[in-house]
UniProtKB/TrEMBL annotation:
PANTHER family: PERMEASE PERM-RELATED, TRANSMEMBRANE PROTEIN. It is found in: Cell membrane. Belongs to the autoinducer-2 exporter (AI-2E) (TC 2.A.86) family. The keyword Transmembrane helix applies. This is Pheromone autoinducer 2 transporter. The gene is yhhT_2. It is a multi-pass membrane protein. Residues 139-162, 467-509 are annotated as: Disordered. Residues 143-160 have a biased composition (Low complexity). InterPro entries: AI-2E-like (IPR002549). Keywords: Cell membrane, Membrane, Transmembrane, Transmembrane helix, Transport. Pfam families: AI-2E_transport.
Length: 661
């Protein structure tokens, strides 16, 4: 398919909704970040409420499914959720009070154990070395004459001046001051909790109303698609967040019980901390294991408790990350590792510890918005883990950049789960069509075209001996295939797939039995080479002649190796005009008048462009039933198999048998 004419040499890759003005984009980013920072006192409770609403929405839907009215369902869910949070907060407060009481004793034990470590002399030697280095680098202060002069009169007097004792007495706090000192630290958290609770209640009560308003903002031109996208996004986010909360709570419970069994003080506190820190990527588990490890040093004179503590965290984290989480919600969170790191640093810098805990959920919400809201698509491209370029675009980009190793690596990754034919059909041939489109509109110089062809040739050479692992022999259809001139409703109805033949028909496996000729397009030769490799891998004896052979006066009576039984003309979409295609077909028909001819047009051509190529051929050639147009390599294999006499006879026999009463 040809692209619109353009003066710039740009690849056909659609921009992901980024604003066009660079300066305006920068100003907008600065403004958004400033607003997020200045209004954090309001936005943090609102964001917390939104995340909690996502978590509690499945519970509310479950109660509604049990015929509980909306308002009681919402109030009951919020009451239970905040009751659990309050209970956890009270438990953590008591545990922290106990820890503060015992902290001096733990500190002395840890210092004693560190002293045992330094008893071997290594610490003293290192400390002495550093002290001597400091004395050599920093000069010693000399006694000042002023100090000696000031001491003179006192010495002459022979008496010492005795300082007067000064005592400062603080008045006893009154009742109001005591109440204020107790309540003041609690005002902020209690107020934030109340605001969050109110927001959660209203978000759950007016969920449909909020959804309708978002649809209106996003665009109500296609209500069906927008509604389906938002419902899918909110449902998946709710399930993911609820599953994450439950898994992290179970993780914290396991850690708490394990620390209790090991003998670590305040196990409930460390279990809650471990569950919370699992929301923090990468460093959360390190933070959660640090405090119990220090206590293990204090409560045990040996090292067994410390080793058991570290082993508990290692085993629990390994099972959770590698077995439980992939089983519950897949191997990926939808974010790239770099996006996770950047998001963690950004939200922590912006909103502090709460931003650290909310970094992953917030970023995941932004990615989901980017996937379903066109104006925010750049968020999915920047932060999401989906491929930024489609496989054909990545193929073309690597060839354009001269990255032969990248081409081979991409092919190896794709070939792990698919066949060589499928890789050529889905990646390589559409990638060549992109290159041909750019070359056709003048975006690629001749040197650049040669550059791309060289890299693709290197890839084809590397894949020449590739064998599919456990190749699935796709059933080669023996049913009717539409003739070259048939379109739309004129095509024969699809027949039920018959049993595939055991092997390639006799004589068709001989070298040169199928002659493949490329068109005159810049990348038709590479496409023809892919067709030859696919035919040979299936068992056909395929050979290839250059396009220049069509322009020679002498006839092409035989192929280099044997008798020609079928012809293939390989054309990349947009690389061959109707006149050149007509010339190639007439030239092949002159030398091989009765042989089947398969014309492969590789790419994603529009129906009108493909029909224009069909119309360029003489009607008598289209009407003889020996010319077939195909768009995929698998279709070419099916068509060639049908063209064999044995297959035609078997098909006619089945049709005759089916026609009998």
């Amino acid at each position: 398919m040809r692209l619109p004419e353009s003066s710039g040499a740009r690849a056909r890759i659609r921009a992901a909704g980024l604003p066009s003005g660079g300066t305006g984009t920068l100003y907008a980013i600065v403004a958004v970040v400033s607003i997020l920072y200045v209004t954090r006192e309001l936005l943090v409770p609102l964001v917390l409420a939104t995340l909690l609403a996502f978590v509690l929405a499945p519970v509310v839907r479950g109660l509604r499914h049990w015929r509980v009215p909306r308002i009681p369902a919402v109030l009951l869910t919020v009451f239970l959720a905040f009751g659990l949070l309050t209970t956890g907060g009270v438990v953590m407060g008591r545990q922290m009070a106990e820890l503060a009481t015992d902290l001096p004793r733990y500190q002395a034990a840890v210092m004693e154990k560190v002293g045992h470590l330094s008893s071997g002399g290594m610490v003293e030697r290192v400390s002495g070395l550093l002290q001597r280095l400091g004395e050599n680098v920093v000069p010693r202060p000399h006694a000042s004459t002023s100090s000696s002069a000031s001491a003179g009169p006192a010495a002459e007097a022979g008496t010492s001046v005795r300082p007067l004792p000064v005592e400062v007495h603080t008045p006893e706090p009154g009742t109001l001051e005591l109440i204020q000192s107790v309540i003041a630290p609690l005002v902020g958290p209690v107020a934030t909790t109340g605001i969050v609770a109110v927001f959660v209640v209203f978000l759950l009560l007016y969920r449909e109303d909020m959804r309708d308003r978002v649809i209106k903002l996003v665009g109500s031109g296609d209500l069906q698609r927008t509604t389906a996208a938002l419902d899918e996004a909110t449902t998946r986010l709710s399930r993911f967040f609820l599953a994450q909360v439950m898994l992290n709570a179970c993780f914290g419970a396991v850690i708490g019980l394990g620390l209790w069994a090991v003998g670590i003080p305040n196990p409930a506190l460390w279990g809650v901390l471990a569950g919370l820190m699992r929301f923090v990527p990468f460093v959360g588990v390190i933070i959660s294991v640090a405090f119990p490890a220090l206590l293990a040093l204090a409560v045990d004179p040996g090292w067994a408790t410390l080793l058991w503590t570290v082993a508990l965290f290692a085993v629990a984290e390994g099972l959770q990350a590698q077995a439980v989480e992939p089983l519950v919600y897949g191997h990926s969170t939808g974010l790239t590792p770099i996006a996770v790191l950047l998001a963690t640093a950004f939200w922590t810098w912006l909103w502090g510890p709460l931003g650290l805990l909310m970094a992953m959920p917030l970023t995941l919400c932004l990615v989901v918005l980017g996937r379903h809201v066109k104006q925010l698509e750049f968020l999915d491209v920047l932060l999401g883990d989906r491929e930024a370029l489609a496989p054909p675009e990545a193929f073309y980009q690597r060839a354009l950049a001269g990255d032969a190793d990248g081409l081979i690596e991409q092919a190896e990754l794709r070939l792990n789960g698919t066949s060589l034919r499928a890789y050529y059909d889905e990646v390589a041939l559409p990638g060549l069509a992109l290159a041909q489109a750019d070359a056709g509109r003048g975006a690629l110089s001749r040197r650049r075209v040669e550059w791309v062809r060289d890299k693709v040739d290197a890839l084809l050479e590397d894949l020449a001996d590739h064998e599919d692992a456990g190749e699935d022999e796709a059933p080669l259809m023996e049913g009717p295939v539409a003739p070259a001139g048939a379109t739309g409703d004129d095509r024969a109805p699809e027949a039920p797939p018959p049993a595939p033949p055991a092997s390639v028909p006799d004589g068709w496996e001989a070298p040169g039995s199928i002659l493949c000729v490329p068109g005159r397009g810049r990348f038709d030769g590479q496409a023809a080479c892919m067709l030859v490799q696919a035919l040979r891998q299936r068992g056909f004896g395929a050979g290839m002649l250059p396009n220049a052979a069509l322009r020679k006066p002498e006839p092409m009576t035989t192929a280099p190796g044997g008798t020609v039984r079928a012809l293939c003309l390989s054309v990349v979409d947009g690389g061959t005009s109707g006149a050149s295609l007509r010339y190639a077909v007439l030239r092949l028909r002159r030398d091989f008048p009765a042989l089947p001819l398969v014309i492969g047009i590789w790419g994603e051509a529009e129906a009108s462009q493909e029909q224009a190529l069909r119309d360029a051929l003489p009607p008598e050639i289209l009407g003889d039933g020996t010319v077939r147009f195909v768009r995929r390599l698998q279709d070419a294999l099916d068509t060639l198999l049908q063209a064999s006499p044995a297959t035609r006879s078997a098909t006619e026999a089945r049709e005759t048998q089916a026609a009998k009463p």
